[in-house]
Write a structure and sequence with these properties.
Strand content: 35-45%
InterPro entries: Gal_Oxase/kelch_b-propeller (IPR011043), Kelch-typ_b-propeller (IPR015915), Kelch_1 (IPR006652), Kelch_domain_containing_8 (IPR051746)
Strand order of the largest sheet: 6-7-4-2-9
Largest sheet: 5 strands, mixed
Number of domains: 3
CATH class of the largest domain: Mainly Beta
Organism: Leptospira terpstrae serovar Hualin str. LT 11-33 = ATCC 700639
Shape: globular
Structural class: mainly beta
Number of strands: 54
Protein name: Kelch repeat protein
Helix content: under 10%
CATH superfamily of the largest domain: Kelch-type beta propeller
CATH topology of the largest domain: Neuraminidase
Radius of gyration: 27 Å
Number of helices: 1
Keywords: Kelch repeat, Repeat
């Protein structure tokens, strides 16, 4: 047998470089991509991973049309066989679908004919007809990666290719070639060949380019020299990509995605000597237009704010509270008690009720009944004082009729903490944070330390208690609810002063049992980072940015460019690659509709105006 070419098709939904095609039926056409970004999708493009499939095997479909919004999902009309060989169609993302075949159908040819299939929706399918063959003889080589691999993990990793028969191959690097739009930052550094396995070792930074990657292996055959074929497997390629600049560079801001899909960044601190409405603390807000890839002005808040908090109410409005700043027209700054509400339908901010206690670096949680719980915070000026008061905002349609109820005081006052709503237990769980007690009138007359306590607010009884479980003491950390009802806590630091050390150890808290267990270590100890919970496949978490204290006494630190991932299925932290900028104290917008998100602003010495996206689109 002559040489066999083994091809792996790496399919991703990131922005790839487009050719200047003019035919709208061409998936590379800028015209067609424009329709896609606008949501028109009038031309449905489909690409199947193979036209040969084994009984019980899998075909992947990459498309530009979101079938997850349809009640019946993606339907594939089959002809040419008595019994449809398709067992199940599973969405792996909005634009990637896994088609599982029935093991009982072992031979034959069939067609999927989509002509006239979507005419009632005014959609055209290109091409309209697809031919397939059921092949009971597996190919000589297969990729051992399950349903795909995140190649951004391969900053210095490997890929295993297994054979169903003993293979004969020289295993030379010259026989492996890479092509496609994602190839420029990857190289095959070494090859390890055994009787039925080829391990390709990669080096480089695969996050630099998203897109298609094809790996071709030449000169390989089995001992009988009677097998040949081509296998195509779609692989998810994730990467940070540069986004547009903000109109106003900022740190200590907040970002949120509205229910109508608009993405909003608001408030924060501007660069030195940049004054808007008479102050460097911002009331300024901007919308990100994902079609034009630009930021456009949005309605200013009533107050200038930094180190504040925002939540999206159950009806889609935004509720803002506290922070450091002042009302527009008043140039002075201080810790705020004010709240305000943004209505996306009118694009107007309206003042709400005042909190009983001024606070910044606090947290808010929207409860199942729509009310908002406000917890903790710090005062703005030395000597620093942490806030113990917990308040409940009763939300109404009119901000003028909203009221504030004082729930009580935390046993440990705190700010810079993390809190998560546990719907299964009916509680809001409040993890760690920094407690600061004033001991005198001087600016340095305060004691600040990280907390190991976990406070619990019971939604039904409106009571505050302390958990018997103890946290690794930390503040400026992260907490994320898991699909099984437990909560993952990770990151942060253990002190404000020169003895600061990063907390590498992660922990998992069970709110039903009120127990906590130690978990694996982060690769980087970080605080003031940005974290995104990606609703793609299983529970995927990306952690980016932040500060890491790198010396024994914690007196120096660096911002972090490396990113890492965690998922419930893989049950570990692993290197994901690098973000485009090492930044801290920025803000993020999580794309709840598509997965992924955007990191905005922050600082690396100076305050930044650039942005970057981590996206599946």
């Amino acid at each position: 047998m002559g040489k066999i070419k083994f091809i792996l098709l790496y399919s991703c939904l990131l922005a790839c470089q487009l050719t200047s095609g003019k035919n709208i039926f061409d998936p590379n056409s800028t015209t067609n991509m424009g329709l896609f970004l606008l949501g028109a999708d009038s031309v449905v493009n489909m690409e199947f991973s193979t036209n040969k499939v084994q009984p019980g095997g899998v075909i992947y479909i990459s498309t530009n049309h979101d079938f997850t919004v349809k009640a019946d999902g993606l339907k594939l009309p089959v002809s040419g066989v008595g019994v449809s060989p398709i067992s199940q169609v599973i969405p792996r993302s909005r634009y990637l679908y896994e088609v599982r075949m029935k093991p009982s159908v072992t031979a034959g040819k069939f067609s999927i004919n989509l002509k006239d299939y979507y005419l009632n929706e005014s959609l055209l399918v290109n091409p309209e007809n697809f031919e397939f063959e059921i092949d009971s003889q597996p190919p000589i080589l297969e990729l051992r990666t399950g349903n795909g691999i995140d190649i951004s993990e391969l900053q210095s990793g490997f890929l295993d290719i297994v054979s169903n028969e003993d293979i004969v191959w020289d295993g030379n690097l010259s026989q492996v070639s890479l092509s496609g739009t994602a190839k420029n930052s990857l190289v095959v550094s070494d090859i390890i060949v055994s009787a039925r396995n080829i391990r390709l070792l990669f080096a480089g930074d695969p996050n630099a380019n998203g897109g298609l990657l094809t790996i071709s292996i030449q000169g390989i055959h089995d001992k009988a020299s009677n097998s040949e074929g081509t296998v195509m497997v779609p692989i998810n390629v994730f990467a940070f990509k540069s986004g547009p600049n903000l109109n106003v560079a900022r740190r200590s801001c907040v970002g949120v995605e509205l229910d109508d899909g608009r993405r909003l960044v608001l408030g924060g601190r501007a660069k030195k000597d940049v004054l808007i409405n008479g102050n460097g603390t911002l009331s300024h807000a901007e919308f990100y237009n994902s079609v034009t890839k630009q930021f456009v002005p949005a309605s200013d808040m009533v107050y200038r704010r930094q180190e504040f908090d925002v939540v999206k109410l159950n009806d889609g409005r935004l509720f803002v509270s506290g922070g450091f700043g002042g009302k527009v027209g008043n140039p002075s700054n201080g810790s705020l008690t004010s709240t305000e509400v943004y209505d996306p339908t009118t694009n107007i901010w309206v003042e709400g009720p005042n909190l009983s206690t001024p606070r910044q670096l606090h947290k808010m949680t929207v409860l199942p009944n729509g009310d908002v719980l406000v917890v903790g915070g710090l005062s703005p000026f030395k000597p620093f004082q942490s806030v113990a008061a917990v308040e409940l905002i009763h939300i109404t349609n009119d901000p003028a009729t909203m009221t504030v109820e004082l729930i009580g005081n935390l046993a440990d006052s705190r700010g810079k903490h993390a809190q998560v709503l546990s719907t299964s237990s009916g509680k809001v769980v409040i993890f760690g944070g920094e407690r600061s007690d004033v001991i005198g009138a001087g600016p340095n007359d305060f004691n600040a330390y990280a907390l190991d306590s976990i406070a619990v607010y019971d939604i039904n009884t409106k009571t505050l208690t302390n958990s018997s479980a103890k946290l690794y003491k930390r503040f400026n950390h992260f907490a994320h609810a898991l699909s099984n009802g437990e909560i993952l806590i990770f990151g942060g630091v253990n002190s404000r002063f020169d003895v600061s050390q990063p907390v590498l150890r992660a922990q998992i808290y069970n709110p039903m049992m009120d127990t906590i267990r130690d978990y694996k270590n982060l690769l980087f100890g970080r605080e003031w980072g940005s974290s995104f919970a990606f609703p793609y496949g299983k529970d995927q978490l990306i952690v980016a940015g932040g500060l890491e204290y790198r010396t024994v006494n914690g007196s120096t630190y660096d911002s972090i460019q490396d990113t890492e991932s965690w998922s419930e299925s893989s049950n570990r932290f692993y290197m994901t690659g690098r973000s485009l900028n090492a930044r801290w104290e920025g803000c993020e917008i999580r794309y709840s509709s598509t997965g992924g998100g955007m990191i905005l602003g922050g600082r690396i010495g100076d305050i930044l105006g650039n942005t970057e996206e981590y996206s599946f689109e």
